[in-house]
Design goal:
The complex is a heterodimer of chains A (about 260) and B (about 325).
Chain A: E1 2-5, E2 10-14, E3 20-25, H1 28-56, H2 61-86, H3 92-96, E4 99-103, H4 111-119, H5 121-124, H6 131-139, H7 146-151, E5 153-157, H8 181-190, H9 193-204, H10 211-228, H11 241-262
Antiparallel strand pairs in A: 1-2, 2-3, 3-5, 4-5
Chain B: H1 5-28, H2 36-59, H3 63-80, H4 92-106, H5 108-131, H6 135-139, H7 151-160, H8 168-191, H9 198-220, H10 224-257, H11 265-298, H12 307-327, H13 330-334
Classes of the chains: A alpha+beta (about 260), B mainly alpha (about 325).
Chain lengths: ~260, ~325
């Protein structure tokens, strides 16, 4: 198993079988937001402890303060350790922001990793507001703070990965490209996911374009698609450029829509 | 080569669903033990999904399915390559009774360096006080302001019972304060190992300078018995704990530096992680005991508690701790 960061915020692991799996790394800003949520949770828990023990203080104030010291210490130190262990790398803040701590080799987190990354937080937090850890994370290609480097972990962002839906009025009733399934498959193979996204966004925003610009843009897209994967002329004769793009997208995303519907 | 996506997904989908169901079952019940046939089937489903992912990525730009498969294969890989030996709390007994003393013995260089810093710090503190008694004001931090008086005054006050110790609940509060404070200091000392061990070294040195200064002052004032009775009961556990915390920090620093180790930083850190966990958890447990002893025994002096009892307790503590650290967990090593 090997792992490497592709660019700024991507992290990839390669399994022993040679399969590459890519993840989005959590940016330091997103992580800071998760930390703020967690700090709120810790202070809420500590306040709850103080309030409960104030009732107990009626019986014995010294025992109540002894309990308060020990419980608040346990909550402050143990919050991250217990939650990341039992929720597979997540705390409340990380769950809300769809972040997860992951072993750099794609394996499950082990206790020493969870404990180390949380204990080393005391250094990452120095000299306050995570200045040290934040700077290291900004400079590190895997956005790791010191605790992550020592523990061999990265924090990934589980982005909602569903493909942007085609506008409902763009759902194609008859698609002439369906007569050429082998060419549709070829088109799916050749077009990069990012290019598909661009085409879908162009369809979404087409009404914001001036008529002449809209025609020019979709002519350009259609020409590129025809050049990339030539279909017989029957497939697009008397079909406008915009409709051709729509047909292509229908061919590419049909399976995604089916899978999403089945889910 | 092209891919008939519709047929491909229709054909493979039942296998993906089966793998997904298996993984959910395993995640819901992590203690579940699979039969050999189930393991073989899980491996088969994982390899099949891996192969499908490779094909999808090569022959299709269908991002939705690729992401779905990436998530599925990633989860399966993590589950199949499970390397947790026991639960966090389940393995804690083994960690303290076996791995902690083993780690203490195994990390020899860090242990010797930590001990050397401790001894040098004590000598430095002692010499500072002996050469210039006014250095005490500089050496002692704010929290030790109660030691600003002379040893003679302190002993007289303590033996007259002037320092009110409070009831048992107040002692418990003091005890928990000591435990949490010392544990924080230990965590901090270990964590400073990320400064390539420099921060840990400074912390270890500074802590022992204070001890050396106080020790020299009391001994030169002829109050050695009081000093031993005051510090030995809890210090026999607390001071070794701080030395071990420094050892942990130096282990971390050593892994970061990696002199003479022809392996990558990640490999070096992976090699010491379990030892660091064992050392810091072991220190935590020792400090709980030290906190109890310090609050309930060390703070009481003659005539309430005879010095010989306190010194004997300290010697017993130190002997037992030495035996534990040098002998415990040897069975596993010999395997």
């Amino acid at each position: 198993m090997s792992a490497k960061a592709d660019n700024n915020l991507r992290f990839a692991i390669e399994t022993d079988e040679g399969v590459r799996i890519e993840y989005d790394l959590a940016s330091p800003v997103r992580r800071m937001l998760a930390i703020l949520v967690d700090l709120c949770c810790i202070s809420a828990l500590n306040s709850a402890i103080t309030t409960l023990l104030m009732l107990f203080a009626i019986i014995s104030s010294s025992t109540a303060s002894a309990l308060a010291i020990i419980l608040q210490f346990v909550v402050t130190i143990g919050y991250g350790i217990v939650l990341e262990w039992s929720w597979q790398g997540q705390t409340v803040g990380k769950r809300l922001l769809r972040l997860r701590v992951m072993d750099m080799n794609g394996r499950k987190l082990v206790p020493e990793q969870v404990v180390l990354r949380n204990l080393l937080r005391v250094i990452d937090m120095m000299p306050g507001v995570y200045l040290f850890g934040g700077t290291v994370a900004f400079l590190n290609r895997n956005a790791q703070r010191l605790g992550d480097i020592a523990a061999g972990t990265v924090v990934i962002w589980h982005r909602e990965r569903s493909m942007p839906a085609l506008p409902t009025d763009d759902l194609v009733k008859y698609n002439s490209l369906h007569h050429y399934p082998h060419l549709e498959a070829r088109l799916r193979q050749l077009l990069a996911p990012a290019e598909v996204d661009t085409l879908i966004h162009a369809l979404h925003r087409r009404k914001q374009l001036a008529p002449s610009e809209r025609i020019a843009l979709f002519d350009q897209f259609a020409n590129d698609l025809k050049h990339l994967c030539p279909f017989p002329i029957d497939a697009y004769e008397n079909v406008s450029s915009e409709q051709y793009v729509r047909n292509c997208l229908d061919s590419i995303t049909r399976q995604s829509r089916k899978m999403a519907a089945r889910k | 080569m092209i891919l008939d996506l519709e047929n491909f997904i229709d054909r493979e989908r039942p296998h993906w669903d089966a793998l997904d169901t298996q993984l959910k079952r395993l995640q819901d019940d992590s203690a579940k033990v699979l039969s050999f046939e189930e393991i073989q089937h899980l491996q088969y489903l994982y390899e099949r999904a891996s192969s499908d992912l490779t094909r999808m990525r090569t022959f299709s730009s269908e991002e939705h399915t690729i992401r779905y498969l990436e998530d599925l294969v990633g989860r399966a890989y993590s589950e199949i390559n499970e390397n947790r030996s026991a639960g966090l709390f389940k393995g804690i007994w083994t960690l303290i009774t076996e791995e902690f003393p083993q780690a203490f013995r195994d990390c020899r260089i860090a242990r010797r360096l930590s001990l050397t810093l401790f001894v040098v710090g004590i000598l430095f503190g002692a010499l500072s006080i002996l050469l210039d008694p006014m250095a005490k004001r500089v050496i002692l931090p704010e929290q030790f302001s109660h030691l600003a008086i002379t040893p003679e005054e302190r002993v007289a006050r303590e033996e007259k019972g002037e320092g009110n110790k409070g009831d048992i609940a107040e002692l418990a509060t003091f005890s928990t304060y000591l435990m949490t404070h010392n544990t924080r200091v230990s965590i901090y000392t270990m964590s400073l190992g990320v400064t390539w061990g420099v921060g840990t070294g400074i912390m270890a040195f500074y802590n022992s300078v204070i001890l050396g200064a106080i020790g020299a002052e009391y001994i030169s004032a002829g109050k050695a018995v009081f000093l031993l009775a005051w510090l030995l009961p809890h210090g026999s556990v607390e001071l070794p704990s701080l030395i071990i915390a420094s050892q942990a920090g130096l282990v971390l620093g050593g892994a970061l530096i990696g002199w003479g180790q022809p392996v990558t930083l990640r490999q070096r850190l992976r090699a010491v992680r379990r030892q660091l966990l064992a050392l810091i958890v072991g220190v935590g447990f020792l400090l709980i005991y030290a906190g109890l002893v310090e609050a309930f025994i060390s703070q009481f002096h003659e005539p309430v508690l005879p010095y010989w009892i306190k010194i004997t307790l300290g010697v017993v503590n130190l002997t037992l701790l030495t035996l534990f650290l040098t002998r415990a967990g040897q069975k596993k090593v010999s395997k």
